[in-house]
Amino acid sequence: MKEAGTQRLKTADGTIVHYIDINGVNKVHNWDGAALIPQGNKRQAEYYLFGIKYTKDKWLEFKKDVNGIPWYKTAAGKAAGARV
What we know:
flat
């Protein structure tokens, strides 16, 4: 099994595609920004994670969940009175 890493492809018309190879299957994917930029036009950029298309807002939500503290270490847990 090859190491999974995002690859970048630029076509002759200027389209930029970021993709990941998962067990021999290429899926459009990019955690760092738009995964598909048609003809280099950033206004038409599309956001994908593991081949599933998302809106920019939804993609930002997923990106926000990746960094920072884990979901189980939230302030709500302390406010709810975890210690009795």
